[in-house]
């Protein structure tokens, strides 16, 4: 029987691969062009930032693509420069996404039961936190949502 951590890692691997496939199909010359609000580059950096925050629990204060940059809770998370900006090359942005994705999948694969228990930071929750497992599940759907946004943007 597949354990919880293997199940989560496998589902993240599948969804992140599907997201990456959609991004691969965007021509490099239009990767930073905003359509329907954001560019494919922004979506890639956004998912990388949320993987770091939600799955890895990384509190390094260099977040700039969470999508809530005007919110009070983001202020302390974005005091340092972003690892990459939206105008970086497609190759560099996808490499960043690949690196963070691999870290997240590895973390989930090797997480202990204790790692999956308890509460975690979740700004969209009424009290600012939610059960860790629920947060990881919500984030998986968040990746799928942004995959769809990139697809819709290419049709605009």
From TrEMBL:
Xref: InterPro entries: DinB-like (IPR024775), DinB/YfiT-like (IPR034660)
> What residues does the DinB-like domain cover?
17-150
**What is the name of this protein?**
DinB-like domain-containing protein
Organism listed in the record: Deinococcus marmoris
- Give the taxonomic lineage as stored in the record: Bacteria, Thermotogati, Deinococcota, Deinococci, Deinococcales
